[in-house]
Specification:
- By secondary structure, the chain is mainly alpha-helical.
- It has one domain (3-94).
- The protein contains three helices and no strands.
- Helix 1 (3-53) packs antiparallel against helix 2.
- The longest helix is centred in the first third of the chain and has 51 residues, at 3-53.
Length: 96
């Protein structure tokens, strides 16, 4: 095996590793976006409930729509092997 063949083999391995790293990075970004969307939907539901309890318009349809969106995102995350955050967050978020 010549030096050029070895170099070509190493270059192919490096390219494969870079492609895998890029795919993993993209997956992590997609997961972070989904987690952010979940957080935003939970916050929207909270605002709708508070407004409704304060005598605002009935928000049941809007709440149901957001719950359906949350369910779909959680399903997608479960399929990807990522866990969704709990609606209440964790203790570290509450103290922030």
């Amino acid at each position: 095996m010549s030096i050029l063949d070895k170099a070509k083999g190493y270059a192919e391995k490096a390219a494969d590793a870079a492609a895998k790293a890029t795919a993993v990075g993209k997956d992590k970004i997609d997961d972070a976006r989904a987690q952010k969307k979940l957080h935003d939907l939970y916050a929207e539901i909270g605002r709708l409930v508070v407004a409704q309890r304060r005598g605002g318009p009935d928000a049941e349809v809007d709440i149901a729509t957001r719950v359906a969106q949350i369910s779909a995102i959680e399903h997608d995350l479960a399929d990807a092997g990522t866990s969704a955050p709990s609606p209440g967050g964790d203790a570290s978020e509450a103290s922030a």
